[in-house]
Structures are given as C-alpha cells and as structure tokens.
From TrEMBL:
<dbReference type="Pfam" id="PF00356">
    <property type="entry name" value="LacI"/>
</dbReference>
<dbReference type="InterPro" id="IPR000843">
    <property type="entry name" value="HTH_LacI"/>
</dbReference>
<dbReference type="InterPro" id="IPR046335">
    <property type="entry name" value="LacI/GalR-like_sensor"/>
</dbReference>
<dbReference type="InterPro" id="IPR010982">
    <property type="entry name" value="Lambda_DNA-bd_dom_sf"/>
</dbReference>
<dbReference type="InterPro" id="IPR028082">
    <property type="entry name" value="Peripla_BP_I"/>
</dbReference>
<dbReference type="GO" id="GO:0003700">
    <property type="term" value="F:DNA-binding transcription factor activity"/>
</dbReference>
<dbReference type="Pfam" id="PF13377">
    <property type="entry name" value="Peripla_BP_3"/>
</dbReference>
<keyword id="KW-0804">Transcription</keyword>
<dbReference type="GO" id="GO:0000976">
    <property type="term" value="F:transcription cis-regulatory region binding"/>
</dbReference>
<keyword id="KW-0238">DNA-binding</keyword>
<keyword id="KW-0805">Transcription regulation</keyword>
<protein>
    <submittedName>
        <fullName>Transcriptional regulator, LacI family</fullName>
    </submittedName>
</protein>
<feature type="domain" description="HTH lacI-type">
    <location>
        <begin position="14"/>
        <end position="68"/>
    </location>
</feature>
Amino acid sequence: MAVTRRGMGRDGRPTLEQVAARAGVGRGTVSRVINGSPRVSERTRAAVQQAIADLGYVPHRAARALAANRSDAIALVVPEAETRLFAEPYFSGIIRGVSAELADTDIQLLLTLIRTPKERQRFSQYAASHRVDGVLLVSVHGDDPMPDQLAEMGIPVVMNGRRSSDELVPHVDCDNVGGAQLAVEHLLGRGRSTVATITGPSDMYVARCRVDGYKEALRAAGRDPDEDLIAKGDFSEESGHAAMHKLMRRRPELDAVFCASDLMAIGARRALRELGRSVPGDVALVGFDDSSLARHMDPALTSVRQPMEGMGRAMTRALLAEIGDSGPDRPRLVLPTELVRRGSS
C-alpha cells in the first residue's frame, strides 16, 4: 500500500505496516492477530492490540475476507419468476427472517432469482468461483440438481423445505402434514361433510405433504379420500381461482375447501363469489401460511400458521454454523405449525 508523507494510507487511515512498526513485529504477525490466529503469543498479541488502539487502526474488511479465504457474503436463491417472489407473502417472510438474522453480522445478502437453465448455469459458475461463502435455497422443486451440485463443490448450503422424505442436504422445514391435518380436522369438526382441497404443484414435496395430511385426516375420520375433491394448483392466486371453478363443476355440493396456500384461498374466494356461494355459509375455507393476506380477507381467513420468519432465521443460523464449521452435522429441522381460526370457517 502506498504511504503518504505522514505514514498514512492514501485515504488518511493508519496502515497495517504502521501497526507492525509500532508493535515491533512483522506485517504477517499483525494479520494473524486481527484474524484471531492462535499462533501468536499472548505478549505479542497484547503489543499488537495496544498498537491498534493507539493508532486507531480499522482492519479493511475486504483484506480480512481475502486472508481468511472468505467473501463475507451469502446468496439467497429463489428458483421462481419475480412475479411469484413479489406476489407471495411466503417469500417476503423468509427474506425478513434471513435479513434479521444477518443484521448483527458483517455478511452481505445477495438475492438471486433463477428462472432459466442459463441463469442456473451462470449462478453455479459464480458460486464455484467462491464469490459467496454459502447458499440458502428456497422453493426447491423435486428435480432441482442445484443443492447436490453446490454440495459437491464444497459450498455450504441449507434449503428451505425438502425435495423428498430422505433429503440429505441440510434443511429447515415446517410440519406440512400435521398442519394440513389440523385444517381438515377443524373443517370436519365444524360439521362439514364434503371437504375438498386445492394443492400445490406435485413436483414439490411440500405440496405432496399437504395432500397427505388432508387424506390422513379424512381417513382418521372414517372417510375415504375422493380424487374428484382434489384439484391441482401451483400456490398462485390464479391457480386457486381456476381450481375452485373446477371443483364446483365436479362436486357442486361440496361445503368446505382446504387450500394449500393463502394466495390460492384468495383465488378460491373470488371464484366462489362469482358462483354466488357465500363463505362460510355455503363453503367454509381454510388456507395455509397465515400471511397478512389472511387477516385482510372478508371474511378473515382461517389459516395454518407456519413460522416463515422463524424458518428464515433458522436457515441462516444453520448456514452460518456450516460456514464456520461449528454446528451439528447436516442440520435437519422441522418446525411446528398451528391453526389460526377466523371467520372463513
């Protein structure tokens, strides 16, 4: 680093060389003290720390990261279109949790959307060049190879959700089966006799789990699941709207619907209004997420609460532990869900 007449760096700040000269040690020794290396005697460490205090030296973050082979950045990767990212409250909840957990650190968060194979390849190359210290993956579909590719490259990765029941990549999930069971048990307990469901995409484990919970609740009540009462969606409002119309054509006598997301429940509510059906009078409605949208619906939506911000925080803690090699091996967490009862059911 070039030094001015007064021995300062070009920006007027004390340099590493100045600290070394004042402490009577080499530049490398100062670097080891700054990075917390144990290969320094207590006497030398104290001398360097005193020199740092006397000069008011502030370590350069980029230099520290380079010395430690770190980038001080993690990526939050969402393999969805930007319309989904900004429309679905689920994603904003996860992002809030991740951001809150990073607030007291020096780590930067990079938000990356992956919509095409080209974007997937570009991010893989970016990650392989060690531009990030770790990756958080959200909304992973069953055939997505990225978690395994990142793991093979030695890049710490934690997923939100799982691709299957035997997922090996570290992950944080919620109790999707149990949450769906709570929703359907509630509807049956309110005297509803014909309970339908609108599912998420079948290539996502989270969606299959919620269908499993729906079916298990029916069987526990002595009822056989009816495929005519199951309509496929993709977690979006429009898919909920289309699926609700399809269900009413198939089974116009249905009197309750469990939607696998709040956004699909909004679409279903719109379809029921178009068909002249009242909620909850004619059809009771339950969603999943307990997003802010649920509270603002008319009537307010009964919904299964999953801890979106809590999952974001837990994912981040797990990833930071993986990066620091200080956490449990292969963390796998499943957080509880609960039913929030409101006027729609």
